[in-house]
Design goal:
Strand content: under 5%
Shape: globular
Largest sheet: none
CATH topology of the largest domain: Rna Polymerase Sigma Factor, Chain: A
CATH class of the largest domain: Mainly Alpha
CATH superfamily of the largest domain: RNA polymerase sigma factor, region 2, helix turn helix motif
Number of domains: 2
Length: 195
Amino acid sequence: MNAQNEQFFTDQDDREAVLSVQAGDTQAFSLLVERYTPALHALALRMLGDRETASEAVQEIFFKAYRHLSTFEPQRRFYPWLYTIAVNHVRTEVRKTRFRERFHHRSADPDYTLSFIPSRHAAPEESLLRREADREISAALGTVPPRQREVFVLRYVSGLSVRDVSEIVKLPENTVKTYARRAREKLAHALSSVI
């Protein structure tokens, strides 16, 4: 979870919500949905590249999490558990998409951007330049192999620690570091060709 979200939600906040759901307060799950929807949508969008598919994926991720919440052990941290569900679901969606696209090439969603957040204070020219830069970054990120892209997005875009990424993707920490480094190198190489 990135530092901005950590300011507002702690592991204890998550634990209390989970315990409430496990005790029968199904409304408490809506707190978790509200808390994690932006981060999960960003993850799904960056990995899948399509807003509608990402939104559907987030709904399915929460459905799976709710269905399995009774097995969650409250002494564990919730967000790595939820991110593990998310990553596994997104992997499945990526495989389905690759199978469908094996014979049909599709261009990237023109509305998809890596990190563009419109600013009320940005001049129109600045907003346009930022949006174009984000499209270039998104296209470059699409050239990174899926497992490396997954690690890169979790580590640098979602802001998770190496330890958390390791736990989520079930890879040793040194492998996470290697994948992140390779993804950065491939991204830098892809971006250098457009600059």
